[in-house]
Task: inverse folding
């Protein structure tokens, strides 16, 4: 449901860029999906594969880089990784309000021919 | 070696750099919406919650109580039915219903389309009631000024901890159905602590759309935002008082 909408956007973006580069086939699609997006990677892959049928992305390999949640602590002036639902700095315990990584839904690059 | 365009199948595999968010199209449309709202001086709030928290009742009560003080329009998103928009229209407001079919969230394109049915030149406040969903709307910028999360006392205390992303960016969190808090043994301190943990900067208001309790603070928030957003044609505030160094001198004829 949700992954289908996102896979649709990803496919549209991939096809657009591939077409602009004069490609006839997309072989590989590399993406970054952040842990905070709530995207289930298997569901996303399933949706992408289904939607790509009959397009130049049919059969393309989807390579997903999972991006963990990284917050910034203003007090300690350092970044820290967390997978908890509370973004407390492991050193000073201050709740971080700055999430630096983990929200990505990026199409990074493709292999085309 | 085959020349280019010779018709032979070439397997010259090459890399294409993209480095774009798959939401970039939505983000661009959202910025367009945002620019339009800025130009027209309209305050826009994206109201999100899980289904049944009382978003529609909250907006209904708002229209009832301050619909004569502010020019308010509503855009409502649901998968199906026009029920919510019909309820809201009973209070004399313009309410546009977006039925998404299968989409579990509103996006900037849907909102842009709905704007075509509104008189943007005579509007102070646009309330967008998103599809009941605490997950997906977090990823879709609509062009709003701020996001407001509604959570009801009947949902327990740990909603913010379970859905941190949508709470994090909220400007305000409304704890609704406060009139039922005692009956459901709502753990108020735990709930407020949970909100503060994931959204330390959010304004927390405890309200009951049904009884009206706590609603004046919500109206105050809305009126302040409307008063602060500059209307078209309004002159910007002067940088410094006339006569002070650096201020504009009035024209004078040369001696």
Result:
């Amino acid at each position: 449901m949700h992954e289908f909408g996102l896979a649709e956007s990803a496919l549209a973006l991939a096809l657009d860029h591939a077409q602009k580069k004069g490609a006839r086939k997309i072989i590989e699609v590399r993406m970054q999906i952040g842990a905070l997006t709530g995207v289930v990677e298997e569901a996303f892959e399933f949706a992408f594969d289904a939607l790509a049928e009959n397009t130049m992305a049919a059969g393309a390999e989807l390579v997903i880089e999972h991006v963990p949640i990284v917050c910034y602590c203003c007090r300690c002036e350092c970044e820290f990784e967390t997978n908890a639902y509370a973004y407390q700095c492991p050193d000073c315990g201050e709740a971080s309000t700055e999430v630096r990584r983990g929200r990505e839904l990026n199409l990074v690059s493709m292999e085309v021919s | 070696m085959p020349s280019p365009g010779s018709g032979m199948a070439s397997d010259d595999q090459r890399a294409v750099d993209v480095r774009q968010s798959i939401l970039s199209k939505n983000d661009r449309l959202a910025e367009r919406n945002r620019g339009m709202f800025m130009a027209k001086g309209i305050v826009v709030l994206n109201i999100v919650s899980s289904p049944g928290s009382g978003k529609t009742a909250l907006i209904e009560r708002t229209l009832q109580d301050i619909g004569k003080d502010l020019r308010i329009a509503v855009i409502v998103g649901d998968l199906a039915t026009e029920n919510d928009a019909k309820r809201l229209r009973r209070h004399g407001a313009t309410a546009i219903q977006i039925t998404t079919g299968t989409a579990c969230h509103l996006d900037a394109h849907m909102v842009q389309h709905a704007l075509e049915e509104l008189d943007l030149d005579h509007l102070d406040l646009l309330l967008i009631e998103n599809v009941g969903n605490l997950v997906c709307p977090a990823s879709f910028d609509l062009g709003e000024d701020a996001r407001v999360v509604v959570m009801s006392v009947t949902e327990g205390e740990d909603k913010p901890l379970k859905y941190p992303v949508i709470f994090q960016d909220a400007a305000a969190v409304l704890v609704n159905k406060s009139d039922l808090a005692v009956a459901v043994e709502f753990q108020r301190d735990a709930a407020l602590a949970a909100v503060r943990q994931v959204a330390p900067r959010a304004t927390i208001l405890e309200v009951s759309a049904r009884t009206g309790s706590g609603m004046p603070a919500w109206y105050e928030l809305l009126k302040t935002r409307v008063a602060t957003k500059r209307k078209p044609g309004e002159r910007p505030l002067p940088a410094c008082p006339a006569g002070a160094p650096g201020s504009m001198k009035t024209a004078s004829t040369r001696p």
In short: Residues 2-20 of chain A form the longest helix (19 residues). The mean pLDDT of chain A is 90. The beta strands of chain A are 26-34, 61-67, 69-73, 78-82, 98-101, 105-112. Chain A is about 25% helix and 35% strand.
